[in-house]
Each structure stands twice: as C-alpha cells, then as structure tokens.
C-alpha cells in the first residue's frame, strides 16, 4: 500500500512539474536511450564539466522517440538514429530558432568542433550543419550551396564563414547565401556557383539575378599573371574583369541587352530576328513593340502624338541606306549618321526612329524640342527604352546626336541607366568606346 501511495505522489509531482513548464516539454518517461544521455554526460565530465549540473530530468517522447536532458550550460539530445550529443552556445540558439529536432535540421549527429579558422565552431545535424564564428555569428548551411562552399575549402577558403541564412525566395526558385567573401547562388537549371570581388560588384550594379544576366552558370576563371583577365559566365551573358581595362559586361547574342556598335556587329552579321511584329507601319521585336505602343498610348493620354518612322532593317536594306548616304555626303560624314550593313542597331529589331505625325523636325536634332521629343527624353526609360545616341557622346558611340533613335534594352536596364546617369550602353556595360570601325 505504501508503494502505491508513493507512486501516486510521484506521478502528481511529475504532472505539476510539466504544468510549471507550460506543457511544452514532454513528460518524464521510461529510459529508451538505455543510458546514452547519462553516458554522454559522464564522458564530458559530469557536473564538473562545462555543462554543469542538470536542471531537468531526462525527458523522452520527442520526434523519432528521442530524449534530452538540460543542464545549466546546454543540453544533451539523443535519438536512435543520431546517438547522444551535446548542444550549447550560439549553435544551440540557432538550432532552437529552427524548431530544435522538430525542424528541418533534425538531431545533432556529432559534437561541436571548435578548432576551425579564427576559433570558429561547427556542428553537423541530420539535415545540415551550423557554423559559428565571433565575426559572423551562427548560420545554417546545407544542400547544393554547402557542397559548392566545400569545394572552395569550407571556411578556410576565400569565402570564409556564412553571414546569413540561405534565401530561397529568388526568381525561378533560386537560392543565395552570403559569406564573408562573397555569395553563392543556386538554381536548379545551373547549379551552385560563387560570385565575388569585382565581378560581384558589377553583378550587383546590374541587378543581381533579376538583371538580364540572370544566374551565374560557371565559376570565375582567371588567366595571366601581371596582366590578369577573369571571366564568369551567366545565363544571359558574361562579366569580364581585366587588370588594365577594368570590368565589362557582354550580353549574349540575340538578347535585348546585346550591344551593337562600330566594333561589335550583329551576330550573325545578317541576322533577322524571328519575333518581328508590325508596330505602326514598321517592324519590331514583340516585347519592344508592345512597350513602344504603351509609351505611345501614355503620350497620347497627355495630348502628345507620336509616330513610327523606321524600325527593323534587313542587312540588304541597311546596305542600300548606307550606300545612299555615302553617295550623297561621302563616307566620312556618312559614318557619323548611318551604320554600315551588319553594324546597324536597326537590324536587331529593338530600335525605332520616332517622329511627329505632322513630320515636324523629322530625323533632325530639333526633334528634341518638340513635345514628342521631350516626352521621349523624359519618359522613354520607364518603358525600357533609351535615347541611344545622346548629345555630346559621339566620341563614345561614333554617331551624331539622334534624339529620335530609341533603343529597347528592357525596363531593368533603362531604369538602372536612368538612376546612374549612364548616357550610353558602352558606359553602362563598361565596354570600350567605339567611335570608328
């Protein structure tokens, strides 16, 4: 009878203790760990160790029938799949922020290792690892980004420690994680790649993965010693860094950002885009044409009329136009007002020469002073267009001022150029001036 009363008393105490802890901690149960938590505690030195004295009894009933016991300076967690391991400090706090063993990390599978660079620590879990250093704090790293980081030597490499968590809310379900020395991006179609240094600075200026460059699809590759060249491939182009000339962006052939000038012809040189549509009485690529019509509609809503004058031109058409100017003005002057066949932006299908319906100041510098010219100068960037040949930049573009010549580059680039004050594509992309062939 005394034994029954004692058991009833013990159960009452356990229930009261569970209630005092808010009911969040599993009730005391049998010892499924077979003494593994106690053995781990003893192995680190028991009450005289860094863990200190226990402040809760062994508690079981966790995920996967796991158990834990809390001590003054940390905890020991056990599951049959992971074994018994200590959890403490900054790594323990970060693990807690993801839901302890209930989160995607699961249980710790080894002990914290604090012999890393700059006295950093790491602990592995069933679902990933948590790294900590005094400079970076504690952060989770896992999956493809973790594998790429490992390929560079973990925290010993140029990237150093992670400084935030993986962010997987990017375009096309991509992910990025920031490290002390750069970024690692991952996206299912391209895998995981690091971006750092001067190339990262240019990538940031372009708008990261939201720019026409998209995600990196290779690692940075460098050649040379005293004169060094580094390149990195992206879905939409290439970033090139050179010791003597700085950094530049080369968009892919056929993209809306592809630069055509006197030193960069169309590719192929007689290229005709496949998505040309009728815009007004001219042809233009579909996306550019839709944006041009949107601009025309908004201008009309403000009482300003615009019309199309010249859009897409084939190689043969451009050859005839150029030859006509040469015959009329001579080649030297013709080269300042017309492109040679193959080198014309009109062949991209991304250009439209615009004008006033009444023909006032058609294809003349005075177009800038008309309502249509003023609207284009002030607002074309909102629709993804730039005035390609601005006043005073002939030494860079090779062409005289053409306020009527609108080039479509997409809203991201046109907005960035507007905000940065970039007057030419050569300046924005960091390309060499192209005043002549």
Q: What are the SSEs and their pairings?
A:
Blueprint (H helix, E strand, L loop, with lengths): L1 H19 L15 H8 L15 E2 L6 E5 L2 E6 L3 E5 L1 H9 L23 E5 L2 E6 L3 E5 L1 H9 L23 E5 L2 E6 L3 E5 L1 H10 L14 E3 L5 E6 L2 E6 L3 E6 L24 E4 L2 E4 H16 L5 E4 L4 H15 L1 H7 L13 E5 L15 H9 L5 E5 L4 H4 L4 E7 L2 H10 L4 H5 L8
Antiparallel strand pairs: 1-2, 2-3, 3-4, 5-6, 6-7, 8-9, 9-10, 11-12, 12-13, 13-14, 15-16, 17-18, 18-20, 19-20
Short summary:
Helix content is 28%, strand content 23%. By secondary structure, it is α+β, with helices and mostly antiparallel strands.
Strand content: 15-25%
Based on Cα principal axes, name the global outline: elongated
Helix/strand-derived category reads: alpha+beta
Distance between the termini: 107 Å
Oligomer status: single chain
Sheet with most strands = 4 strands, antiparallel
Number of strands: 20
Helical element count? 12
Overall pLDDT: 93
Low-confidence stretches: 1-29
Helix content: 25-40%
Give Rg in angstroms: 33 Å
Lateral strand order in the biggest sheet: 1-2-3-4
Offer a few descriptive terms.
437 residues, alpha+beta, four-stranded antiparallel sheet, 12 helices, 23% strand, disordered N terminus
What features would you describe in this structure?
This protein is 28% helix and 23% strand. It has helices spanning 2-20, 36-43, 89-97, 143-151, 197-206, 286-301, 315-329, 331-337, 371-379, 394-397, 411-420, 425-429; strands spanning 59-60, 67-71, 74-79, 83-87, 121-125, 128-133, 137-141, 175-179, 182-187, 191-195, 221-223, 229-234, 237-242, 246-251, 276-279, 282-285, 307-310, 351-355, 385-389, 402-408. A four-stranded antiparallel beta sheet has the order 1-2-3-4. The protein has a four-stranded antiparallel beta sheet with strand order 11-12-13-14, covered by helices on one side. Residues 1-29 have low confidence and may be disordered.
């Amino acid at each position: 009878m005394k034994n029954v009363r004692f058991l009833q008393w013990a159960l009452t105490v356990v229930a009261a203790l569970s209630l005092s802890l808010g009911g969040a901690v599993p009730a005391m149960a049998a010892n499924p760990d077979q003494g593994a938590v106690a053995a781990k505690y003893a192995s680190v030195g028991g009450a005289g160790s860094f863990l200190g004295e226990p402040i809760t009894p062994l508690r079981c009933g966790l995920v996967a029938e796991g158990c834990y016991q809390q001590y003054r300076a940390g905890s020991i967690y056990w599951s049959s799949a992971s074994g018994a391991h200590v959890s403490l400090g900054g790594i323990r706090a970060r693990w807690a922020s993801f839901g302890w063993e209930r989160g995607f990390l699961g249980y710790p599978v080894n002990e914290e290792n604090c012999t890393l660079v700059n006295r950093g620590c790491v602990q592995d879990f069933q679902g990933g690892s948590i790294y900590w250093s005094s400079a970076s704090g504690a952060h989770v790293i896992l999956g493809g980004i973790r594998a790429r980081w490992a390929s560079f030597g973990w925290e010993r490499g140029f990237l150093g420690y992670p400084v935030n968590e993986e962010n997987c809310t990017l375009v096309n379900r991509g992910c990025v994680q920031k490290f002390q020395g750069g970024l690692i991006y991952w996206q299912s179609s391209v895998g995981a790649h690091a971006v750092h240094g001067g190339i990262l600075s240019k990538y940031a200026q372009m708008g990261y993965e939201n720019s026409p460059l998209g995600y990196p699809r290779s690692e940075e590759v460098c050649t040379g010693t005293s004169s060094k060249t580094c390149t990195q491939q992206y879905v939409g182009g290439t970033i090139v860094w050179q010791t003597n000339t700085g950094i530049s962006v080369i968009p892919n052939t056929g993209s809306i950002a592809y630069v055509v000038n006197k030193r960069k012809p169309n590719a192929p040189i007689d290229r005709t885009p496949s998505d040309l549509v009728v815009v007004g009485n001219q042809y233009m690529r579909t996306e550019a044409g839709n944006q041009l019509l949107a601009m025309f509609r908004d201008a009309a809503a403000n009482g300003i009329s615009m019309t199309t004058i010249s859009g897409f031109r084939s190689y043969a058409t451009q050859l005839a136009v150029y030859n006509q100017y040469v015959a009329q003005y001579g080649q030297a002057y013709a080269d300042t007002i017309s492109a040679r066949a193959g080198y014309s932006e009109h062949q991209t299908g991304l250009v439209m020469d615009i004008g006033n319906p009444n023909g006032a100041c058609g294809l003349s510098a005075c177009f800038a002073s008309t309502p249509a010219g003023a609207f284009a100068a002030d607002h074309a960037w909102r629709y993804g267009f730039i005035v390609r040949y601005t006043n005073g930049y002939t030494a860079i573009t090779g062409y005289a001022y053409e306020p009527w010549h609108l080039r479509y580059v997409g809203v991201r680039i046109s907005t960035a150029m507007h905000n940065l004050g970039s007057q030419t594509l050569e300046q924005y992309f960091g390309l060499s001036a192209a005043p002549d062939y």
